[in-house]
Structures are given as C-alpha cells and as structure tokens.
C-alpha cells in the first residue's frame, strides 16, 4: 500500500478558500442596523415634495406625473404618522 505524499501548498490553499467563503457568508448574512427610521421618513417626504413640485412646474398641477407624486407624498406622510404613533405608543395613552 502506497501512502500519498502530504502537500502543504494544497492544504493551505483549501484552508484559505474555506476561510474566505466562511467570512463572506458571515458578512453577507448580517442584518443592516436600522437606527435612523425617523431620518428615512423625513428624507422620503423631502424627496416626494421635490418630485411633486418638479412635476407641477414641468407638466402642470393636473398632469399624470403631478397626481402620481401627490399620491406618493400622501403615502410618505401617512408612513411618518404611523412611525410617530409606533414610537410614542408607550408614552401616550391615546394610541
């Protein structure tokens, strides 16, 4: 029975590949931290306000684009109101 020769370079290559794959899967599976929900709401409102006013200037207040961005603006305000209620639920008995 003939024993196979141990190749150090092959072993190190496989170990490095396994470590790189493990590091990739650990980094890719980490959830993103979401500590700035309030800033995201304000940013969304600012963006929809800007797009609405841009559409009104370009196409008029009754155009399809203006109606679309007015609807998106309304949804952004509703989302902000929902976030406010969720954030202040424990402090305020009304909600």
Provide a concise account of the structure shown.
By secondary structure, the chain is an all-alpha fold. It has helices spanning 8-28, 37-59, 64-87. It contains three helices and no strands.
Number of helices: 3
Count of DSSP strands: 0
User: Largest sheet at a glance?
Assistant: none
Mean pLDDT: 78
Helix share, percent: over 70%
Which residue ranges are poorly predicted, with pLDDT under 50 across at least 5 consecutive positions?
none
Structural class, by secondary structure, is mainly alpha
Overall, the morphology is: elongated
- If you compute it from the alpha carbons, what radius of gyration comes out, rounded to the nearest whole angstrom? 27 Å
Order of helices and strands: HHH
Task: Tell me the fraction of residues in β-strands, as a range.
Answer: under 5%
Distance between the termini: 79 Å
Characterize the structure shown.
It contains three helices and no strands. It is an all-alpha fold and 95 residues long. Helix 2 (37-59) packs antiparallel against helix 3. The radius of gyration is 27 Å and the shape is elongated. The model has no long low-confidence stretch (mean pLDDT 78).
Any chance you could write out the topology, listing elements then pairs?
Layout: H1 8-28, H2 37-59, H3 64-87
Helix pairs in contact: 2-3
